[in-house]
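Record type: ASSEMBLY
Status: queued
Input:
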Amino acid sequence: GDSVTQMEGPVTLSEEAFLTINCTYTATGYPSLFWYVQYPGEGLQLLLKATKADDKGSNKGFEATYRKETTSFHLEKGSVQVSDSAVYFCALSFNQAGTALIFGKGTTLSVSS
Amino acid sequence: GAVVSQHPSRVICKSGTSVKIECRSLDFQATTMFWYRQFPKQSLMLMATSNEGSKATYEQGVEKDKFLINHASLTLSTLTVTSAHPEDSSFYICSARDAGRGADWDTQYFGPGTRLTVL
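Status: finished
Output:
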């Protein structure tokens, strides 16, 4: 079945370090891909998305490129901040209005000053 | 931006009682809402898809008689955990899609979640 695999966490970085969180997917069609972020005590928020191959989603300094050839959607940020500490979820969804998101297990990022 | 609220944010109940959780889209209409369950340090697991005016679609392994879902209007879906037991203790999260013209069909807006503790 369709699935999303994320790198295991936690990821611990110092402020201003480079961040990569790997995400790969398995899907029978051509899904849209998403990164959601969950800050402590809050609900999930959409961070960025890409709807077709080679699209790059970006927001708040985070980027991810939809790579069909490697079925990947890795999240990157050039310089993380303490405020980026959160749980990051990679997810996919298909082009149907009633289709739910399929989530990866989430990766906890902890940034220290 | 689109906002989804959940009520209550936390609830503690005795084993055997029922608990109702509300999910509301505050500034948009949602023909479809989703209910997820999140265990500690784990991902969100889809429980059911709630469609306005029709029966919910439950995922395999989710007891529909235990987790009653009602989507009576375009802005409200409710999840009732009936005869709750300690193993039902979890974090329940709803999400909604904006059904309005011009809205992103594939973007879901999440509520802040409800922490249920069954004693």
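Annotation: The longest strand of chain A covers residues 86-93.
Annotation: Residues 5 and 85 of chain A are 20 Å apart (CA to CA).
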